[in-house]
Structure formats: C-alpha cells, structure tokens
Amino acid sequence: MAGESFLVRVTHADPVTTSVKRLRMQAIDGKTLPPASAGSHIILTLKTPNRLLKNAYSLLPSSLDGGTYEVAVLRTEDSRGGSTFVHDALSEGSELTISTPVNLFPINRRARHHVLVAGGIGITPIAAMAEELFRDNRSFELHYCIRNEPNGAFLKDLQARYGERVHLYHSDIGERFGVAKALPQQRIDTHLYVCGPEGMIGAVLNDASALGWLQENLHAERFLSPGGGDPFDVVLRRSDIEVTVGEHESLLEAIERVGVDAPHLCRGGACGQCRCSVVEKDGIIQHRDHYLTQEEREAGDAIMTCVSRLKGQRLELDL
Amino acid sequence: MSLSTIEVDDVRHEFNSETFRDDYTFSNSPEAIARFPFPFDRDEYMYAVNIEQHMPGPPKSATEFPIDIDEHYVAEMADRARVLKEDPLRCQSLPHMLMAEWDLLDLLMTSMARDYPRWFSLERDGRKWHWINRPLGIEQRFVFGDPTTLPQGPMEYVTRQCQGDFCLLDQRDNNLWLDAGIVTSQADWSLDFDLGMNFIEWHGPVPLAHNMNIFDRALKFLMNLQQGRPVRRLNWTMTVNPRLDTSPENYHRWGIDRTTVTPENVGDKVHLRVELQALWRLPRSNAIVFSIRCYLIKMGELVTQPKWARRIHRVLRDLPPELAEYKGLTNYRAATLEWLSQYDDGAPTSPGFYPD
Predict the structure, then answer these.
(1) What share of chain B in percent tops pLDDT 90?
(2) Element containing residue A199 per DSSP (H, E)
(3) Could you give the angle at which helices B333-341 and B306-317 cross, rounded to 10 degrees?
(4) Are strands A190-196 and A113-119 parallel, antiparallel or unpaired?
C-alpha cells in the first residue's frame, strides 16, 4: 500500500532562522527525484534513538526539472522528538528514506486570483504556491504572519522576489491578518489557501465563511502530528497480532513496527487512506483526524490509524 | 525538422501498411494475435472495479512497457492525423491544463525513448530537449515549458506520435474534471461533449454500474492515486469493421455498418475492441492522465486461439441485455453468436486471460 520511496542524502543543511532548519536532499540510489507540484508534502523516516518516526513535511518550491527536494523544519518541543532529531542529528551527508510527494493542498488552477495566507512555519507550502503562481505569471497576494522579522523564515527572499504582493503581520506588536478587511475586496473567482497554527486556520476559515465565501474556494492544510497519549493494546484480527501502542507512538507506527503493511498516505489525518474498521473496543476513540464526518465519529466503528487513539485498554481492528 | 529518408526507411518496414477506414486493410500478424490483451479471465462478464497496478507484464505482452507501441503504430498515427484534419475539436485543452500537458509530454517521451530505443530517442540538457522519432521521421529540439518552441501544444504534439487516446483530469473540489484530451479512436463517446465534466457526469450514460456505487468507489480510489504507482484496467466492446474512429460525430458514417453483418462475413467484419486504460498521477500539475489504448481483433483472428474462441462465445451469449444494448451489439449479436458457436464444443476453459 505504501507509495514509492527514495533513499536520499542531505546535500545542504542550514539554519533559516534560529528555530527553522532547511534540508536539501538528493537521491542516492540512482533514481532522480521527480518534480513536485506546489502544496505537496513528503514523509521523512527518522531513525531517532528511541523509535522510528515518520513525519510529513511540506516541500519548498520545486524546480520544473525535479532532482532535489527541500523542507524547512521548525524546532518544537513535541513529545515525539522528530523536529529535535532533524535539528540536532541531521547534517550534510545524512542519509534518509523519504516517500514520493503527495499533494493534498493543491492550487486550483481555474482561479483568477489567489490569496495565500501563512502563519509561521506554515510558509513552506505557501512559498511553493507563490513560486508556482509567480512562474506562471498568475495573480496572487501573500499574507505572512510572523512573530517578528528575525523569526520570519524566508522573509527577505519572499519580499525580494514577490515585492508588493507580500503583506506582513507582526504578532509581537499585535498585528493580525485582517481577514475581514482583506477578503471582502476579492472577486468571486478568488481562491484562498491558508496554512499555519490550528487557531489561525480556524479563524480564517470561519471569518471567510461568515463573509459568504464558498467552501470550495477555501483551502487549508493543517500541520497535524499524531500527538501522544496513554498507551493501549491493539489486536490486529486478520494478522492475529497484538501490540501495545506507546505513549509517544501513533497507532499506525505501532502497526508498522510489527511488520503489518497498513494502508496510509498523508499520515496527518487528512486523506482518509488509513481508515480502518474497528471490531471491538473497551473505551472511547479519540478522533483527531479531519476526515471522518461527525456521524462517522459517533458511530465509533472506524478509526484513522495515523493520528487517532483509543482512550481505554484494548482496541481490536480489522487488519 | 525531419530526418533523412534513409534513416526513416530503416525502421518503417517494421510497421504495417494498413487502413482503418474505406478499404479496411487492417489486420493482426500472428505475433500481434498472441499478444492481444484478451479481456475475459472467465466465461462470463459483469462490471467490477477491475483496477490493478500498471506493473510490467510478461515480455512481448501489451503491458510489458507502460506505453505500448506495436506494429500498427505508423498507420494509427496517420489515421489520427486525418481525423484531426477533418475535426480539430477532437483535441482540446482548457487553459489551466498547460502544465499537465507538459507532464504528459514528459511521461510519453521518456517512456517511449527508454523502452523503444531503436525507434525513439530523447536527450535532455536541462530544459533543452531533443526528440527523435524514426518511424515517423520527426526530429525536434525544444525548450521544456515553453510552448512556443513546439509546432503544436505539448499534448497535441506528443500524442500525434503516440498510440492511444489521452485525457487529462484536473483534481479539485473532491472530484476529477475532464479538462483536456485528444480522442480520435474512441468507442462512441465525444470529447467535445464531455470536456469540462466531472468523473460522475461523464460516466452518466453507463448502465447498471451507478447502482453498484462503482463510480463513487473508483473516484475515491483515483483521487488518492500516487506518483510512481500507475494503475490500469481493461474495458471492451465490439466494432463492425476495424474502424478506430467510432465517434458520435461520425455516427452517420459507421452506425449503419452494424446492419451489414451476416453469418458469412462475421469472421472478417466483427471485431472485439479492447481498451487498455491506464492512469498516472502527474508530478508537476498534480493532474491525472487517463490513457485509452485501443486494440482491435477480428473474430477470424480471435478464434485461432481455441480458448478465446470458446470463451467469447459464452460471454456474448450470456451478456445482460442492458449491456448488449449499451455496447451497441443488439443488431449483430445473433449472427455473431451463430458463427462463433461452431468453435465452442462445450469443453471447459482454463482460468485466466492468456491462451492455452
């Protein structure tokens, strides 16, 4: 079920800000990394000392020819240690396994105008979109919310390349992307794309909906990491295997750890590929995905293994 | 630019000289019959989401390579050129599909040059590309991404040199949209009519399958199609005379043929028409290319494989009437069955597609 993967070497690793590190990667097994469309992400397999992590990162702008990929990773105090590992353990020459790009946040090419909104490290897919739109000579504007200028990853590059299309908002002096101000000025065939912290995405989408924007013109990508929780046991009925999901491990990662090839794609609760039927459970499913409908969540007979967990002791899956 | 006559003559004789209209001189060599993608793996047929990975098949089979070029290549390309000359609307692309067109050009040229180096070559120096097509005598230098450096749009340019119809599907609003394509060898559907429709809309006319939720499931599957993981399926119908262009636009030219079948001419006139359909996720545009490669075989050629002869007789005999009507078989089904029955002794057939 897993897509094609590539073995890559890090050819450049440099700090973009004090808390953001950029990695450039090239294939080392004789393959060429294919080009990628703006909004794509890849999965990095990170061999941390404690566990194998598979984290999704958006790609920075890609060339038409492909050949290299770049990601930018923010150091966070997440429980899993993925970003810490990228910052402390990866450098030029490091070797990694990455997935083929997947795009769950594509540009709508029929739009006549594009409003790009980024908060913090959410700039990575947004920068890729800006570059693609710029290259194709399409109409766009970029709203970038940062704490302050030293914290704004790629800020100077973006301003130099896209000039007055770039609008900045400094949160440390209380500036905020003015949804209500910016959006009513737009034509009906404008599309909006937002990536950043959950609270910001929610606010932008809510405000836009309240202003009468069509849902199909609004696009968001959430940086959803699996997050931890209390350990629980999972029984894979068809494989006849039982395994304990650790507190810093996702259900999907635990399933993969015992060698079962479970379906998955985005690893971020968005695509729906990893949906799995629940046979039995003795607790409550903590649905953390953006895929299942409210009704499906309440039914409790399906779980997205990449991000969701059981609050309980034992979960039995049809796997 | 064109290649010297000598270099073209060197490979031209490897392809059939034949027609798909007027005098209908099309035929399959014994090798082409042996590699025909026979679509029935059992003695009955019903719809299924029969999608599988587009993995390399056995050597010399129609799926050995991702893009199949065979003995009909030169004649099919000549037929496509005639269709386009008479009706330019067989090739259309909405403005937002240009990047997908370049993706398609990359996919086809790269595959053809890699898998058929005797016939095609591609040299890439950054964005400067150099393409040679020996069977058609074409040489072209162009800048990838710059449409002014090609004589036609990228999709039209490359598909005038590749067997099969091609549709480019844009993915947005949780659906796939048929926003570009070149369609000259189709089983009675119209690009001009379907252009801009979504997946559910353009499958509207298909009977039975909607109630089986086939299209909802297939759509969901395709929207998650990944780069480097193409998929394929076989589809089939029947055609009277080996005509590639059985389009609604030209129905007045070929529809009447369905009334010309007699028990005496079934072997030569009635053809099984198989479509090898494949889908790829395209890297730069995130679009999907849907290729529909048509293979024709006369009943007289098909029955040279005893297993296929028995099986097609049973499949056609037991086909639900809605499907027979949808596939346009009603007029000549009885005559065809009568002719095929002489090759069906009732013996059991082995499972699977391949001949015994």
Answers:
(1) 76
(2) helix A198-210
(3) 140
(4) parallel
Please tell me the distance from the alpha carbon of residue B170 to that of residue B176, in angstroms, as a whole number: 6
Q: What values do phi and psi take at A155, rounded to 5?
A: -55, -50
Residues in B closer than 8 angstroms to A109, CB to CB, are: 96-97, 99, 170, 285
The confidence score (pLDDT) of residue B51 equals 81
Is B247 within 8 Å of B188 (Cβ atoms)? yes
Distance CA B128, CA A140 (A): 29
A1 shares contact with chain B (CB less than 8 Å):
no
- Nearest chain A residue to B175 by CA: give it: A216
Going by C-alpha positions, the residue among A169, A162, A215 that lies closest to residue A192 is A215
Q: Is the pLDDT of residue A53 over 90?
A: no
B24: confidence class by pLDDT, cuts 50, 70, 90: very high
pLDDT value of residue A1: 41
Q: Domains of chain A, with CATH numbers?
A: 5-103 (2.40.30.10), 113-222 (3.40.50.80), 232-317 (3.10.20.30)
- Residue A270 is predicted with a pLDDT of 75
**Residue of chain B nearest A103, judged by CA positions:** B286
* CA–CA distance, A262 with A259 (Å, rounded to integer): 9
Question: What angle (nearest 5°) sits at the alpha carbon of residue A64, between those of residues A63 and A70?
Answer: 25
pLDDT in tens, B319-331: 998 889 888 899 9
Backbone angles phi, psi at B2, to 5 degrees: -135, 160
Percent of chain A with pLDDT over 90: 69
Q: Which member of B12, B114, B124, B233 is catalytic?
A: B233
Residue A275 · residue A304 · CB < 8 Å: yes
Residues 6+ apart with CB under 8 A from B114: none
C-alpha span between B81 and B71 (Å, rounded): 18
- Which of A39, A101, A271 is closest, CB to CB, to B227? A101
Q: What is the largest CA-CA distance in chain B?
A: 61
CB-based contacts of A259, cutoff 8 Å, min separation 6: none
Amino acid at B323: L
What is the average per-residue pLDDT within B27-34?
97
Half-sphere exposure of A99 (CA within 13 A, CB side): 26
Q: Is the pLDDT of residue A265 over 80?
A: no
- Chain B residue with Cα closest to A217: B173
β-strand pairing of A314-317 with A232-236: parallel
A187 part of contact set with chain B, CB < 8 Å:
no
Test A37 with B228 for CB contact under 8 angstroms: no
